[in-house]
Amino acid sequence: MINNGISIENAAQMLLDADNILILCHKNPDGDTLGSAAALMYALKAKGKVCAVACHDIIPAKYDFLGIEVYENQFVPEFVVAVDVADQKLLGDSMAAYSADVDLCIDHHPSNTGYAKYVCCDGKLPAAAQLMYSVVVAMGAEIDVNIANSLYTGLMTDTGCFKFSSTTAETHIVGAELLKCGAQHNFISERFFMSRSKKTIELEKYALNTMEYFFDDRCALIVLTKDILDKVQAQPSDIDGISAIPRSIEGVDVGITIRQINDSTFKISVRTTERANASEIAQGLGGGGHTRAAGCEVICSLEGAKNAILREVETALCR
Amino acid sequence: MINNGISIENAAQMLLDADNILILCHKNPDGDTLGSAAALMYALKAKGKVCAVACHDIIPAKYDFLGIEVYENQFVPEFVVAVDVADQKLLGDSMAAYSADVDLCIDHHPSNTGYAKYVCCDGKLPAAAQLMYSVVVAMGAEIDVNIANSLYTGLMTDTGCFKFSSTTAETHIVGAELLKCGAQHNFISERFFMSRSKKTIELEKYALNTMEYFFDDRCALIVLTKDILDKVQAQPSDIDGISAIPRSIEGVDVGITIRQINDSTFKISVRTTERANASEIAQGLGGGGHTRAAGCEVICSLEGAKNAILREVETALCR
User: Fold this and answer.
1) A248 in contact with B at a CB cutoff of 8 Å?
2) In CATH, which of 3.10.310.30, 3.40.228.10, 3.20.20.330, 3.40.1000.20 is domain A198-318?
3) Residue of A nearest to B162 (CA)
4) What is the pTM of this model?
5) For B105, which of A179, A235, B10, B82 could close a Cys bridge (C-beta 3.0–4.6 Å)?
């Protein structure tokens, strides 16, 4: 295990030496940042520490079961730890007071900018929760059912239920340990993978009904106009899964989802198989990301946005 | 671990003592029966045995990568082993010659009828592949990449990617071992969980467009008419995922999928949350199954089928 900055043991000791600890999540929080933060919160409390969790956004209701204690000035922070936050910008504007003063960052993004005083990061892990498991163990905290549920939530959501390529034998071993410690995996998978909001269903219906195919069906494209998003009153969490749909169709190598932000601004999500490079496609329009999932934002008409991204897709498919 | 009939060690020894072994899968074969059969085939071949796999149905193309050697009278079977087959009826008509003469059954269904001479069954396991892992280890066969891929396919498909309630710590530990032995999990999850056929997409679109809600939206119902199934030229594997859709909607406790077989025959699939009993609902119309997933077949008109099942659902929701 490679740690940029400090080792797991040093990170654990640093936490044990601190008190009045503020735990920061990234904005638009997901299961990994919240699950890892919750686990750390429970471990610190078990060690007699005062601590709480802060996030730029309101924590979505589906994470209520984690029982996260939100920071509301209960104490004056003496130690700030960011969890699953690759870049201080991702803390969000309302966390600006802390972003230059993060003492420790526990993360799994290879792109971590090293903004914190100390960084404990393993870019090969599929989830921050897998690293947090090791930190909590190194702190000598017992993995109780709360910690087990929190970490299992992070592990499941960031690996797409142990599906993504970054999953390793070690991920399953941590999963096994968490189940032994009482993680209610059925409750968690039901919540995150086996149920969809009515709004998501409405958007899926719209997406399937309006999907277009290009380049011998190797590219599928969905447009989510502001009209439909407003009509459905979709929240970001309702839209999350939609951009995976076009790429999930057999034979499709590039899936494009164009989401209208306002009259002339469009966010474009690019997902690819190993036969095309999503990052290169998005870079063509000034965006970026990973090899299989990337994005960009364009300011033009809808037709302009479609034509522009399709030109990039065509180039990528001809490579 | 409870084994009705014989232990894992005895089953392994029985296989090592045999030769010219015919491995039987259940009809409408899935990833667990085929993955478990393929793993056993590779283990037996490694032990110098002559063996092959037989199935009532043609093995769907998406399982080609398993490299299953199909039985075509290459040898006269001296030993017949059924894998993941709870009842001899599930072998299918074309296997009638063997169904009364199965020497050994390796299975994980609590409902196993005990039709084989010897049964090695653990009804608490989420997949036959988890039991087959232990059998192969007990046979002293090395878990090579073929066996690892075969068993991981069974494990993933029968647990819905480690999501279903039957998943345990031991399931993850076997998953970890298979990854250490070279299972290409990314290839397998991409194949079974991250891509859908165009026919499936067409059926999903139809399902979402025609879904009806009942009983304060606690029940969602889909009808797949023979017309739409013929129009899409849907194979059973294209339909598989559709019956999970109605129950997957937030707030829905009973998901019903009615599939038309002919003018007056309808197969009804019932899926429930923990707030309703699928088996009881299906039993009301002469069917049966598990607590969360059950089914029945009715002979009447489409309206009759809908009304009949909705009456059962209403009763169940009032309990």
Assistant:
1) yes
2) 3.10.310.30
3) A161
4) 0.88
5) B82
